[in-house]
Design a protein that fits this description.
Belongs to the peptidase S14 family. The protein is of the alpha/beta class. About 45% of the residues lie in helices and about 15% in strands.
C-alpha cells in the first residue's frame, strides 16, 4: 500500500510538472503587444488607417497671434464657395454664410461656383437668399456650372457674373421621377412642369432671353463655353488668364 501511494504521488507530481510546462509554452506563444513608443517597431509596418484622413486645410496667421483655416479666412474676406453637388446641407451652410455677411456689412459677396447641379429645392433656397440680402452677390464659375449650378451662376448681380476661360457651363430642364399610383405620378409630373416654368422664368429674367427660347434651349443638355455663355446672357465677363486669350480654343465638333 505504501508503495502504491508513493507511486501515485510521483505520478501526480509528474502530471503537474507537465501541465505547468505546457502552460508556459502556451504563454510563450502568445503575442505580447509592444508599447507604441517602442523604437523597434517599424512605423511602415503598422496597420493602415481604416479611413482616408481628411485633407488638411492650411492655417493662416492673422498677425494677432490667432490662426484661421483658409475657408474661415475666405469667409472673412466675404468669399464663399459653392463646390460639389447642391444639397440641403450645402444650402444651409451657404444661406447661413450669406445672412451672416449681410448682417456684418452691405459690401459685395463673391460666390465661387464649381458644381454639377443637384437638388432644385436646395438651389432655390440659395437663390432666394441671394435675392433677399441687400448685398450684391458676384458669381464666378471655375471648373463647371451645370444645371442648378448654372442657374445660380446666372442669379448673381448683373454685371458681376464671371467665368474663367476653361469653365464649362450647361443648362437643361429639371430632372425628376415618380412612382406609385397613377394619381401620384400625375401630381409629381405636374409639379416638375410647374418648377420648370419657374426656373425658365428666372433664367429669362437673368439672360434677357424669352421664356420660349429658354424652354427650347433647355430641352436637352446644352453645353456652352464661357464666351457662348456671355453672348447668351448667363454671365457678363470671361476672366482673362496667363494663357487666355493668347491660346485660341478649338471649335466644338458637330454632332
Amino acid at each position: 500500500a505504501d508503495g502504491l501511494a508513493s507511486s501515485g504521488a510521483v505520478l501526480g507530481a509528474c502530471c503537474a510538472a507537465a501541465a505547468a510546462a505546457a502552460g508556459a509554452r502556451r504563454v510563450s506563444r502568445r503575442r505580447v503587444p509592444r508599447a507604441a513608443e517602442d523604437p523597434e517597431i517599424d512605423p511602415r509596418r503598422s496597420d493602415p488607417p481604416s479611413e482616408v484622413p481628411p485633407v488638411r486645410m492650411p492655417m493662416i496667421d492673422t498677425g494677432t497671434g490667432d490662426k484661421l483655416d483658409v475657408m474661415s479666412k475666405l469667409l472673412q474676406d466675404r468669399i464663399i464657395i459653392l463646390g460639389g453637388e447642391v444639397k440641403d446641407e450645402m444650402a444651409q451652410v451657404l444661406v447661413a454664410q450669406m445672412l451672416y455677411l449681410a448682417n456684418e456689412s452691405t459690401e459685395d459677396i463673391t460666390m465661387y461656383i464649381n458644381s454639377p447641379g443637384g437638388s432644385v429645392s436646395a438651389g432655390m433656397a440659395i437663390f432666394d437668399t441671394m435675392q433677399f440680402i441687400p448685398c450684391d452677390v458676384n458669381t464666378v464659375c471655375f471648373g463647371m456650372a451645370a444645371s442648378m449650378g448654372s442657374f445660380l451662376l446666372s442669379a448673381g448681380t448683373k454685371g458681376k457674373r464671371k467665368a474663367l476661360p476653361n469653365a464649362r457651363i450647361m443648362i437643361h430642364q429639371p430632372l425628376g421621377g415618380a412612382q406609385g399610383q397613377a394619381t401620384d405620378v400625375r401630381i409629381q409630373a405636374r409639379e416638375i412642369l410647374h418648377m420648370r416654368e419657374i426656373l425658365n422664368m428666372h433664367l429669362a429674367d437673368a439672360t434677357g432671353q424669352t421664356s420660349e427660347q429658354i424652354e427650347k434651349d433647355c430641352d436637352r443638355d446644352n453645353f456652352m463655353t464661357p464666351e457662348e455663355a456671355k453672348v447668351y446672357g448667363l454671365i457678363d465677363e470671361v476672366i482673362p488668364t496667363k494663357s487666355w486669350p493668347r491660346i485660341a480654343k478649338p471649335a466644338r465638333p458637330a454632332l
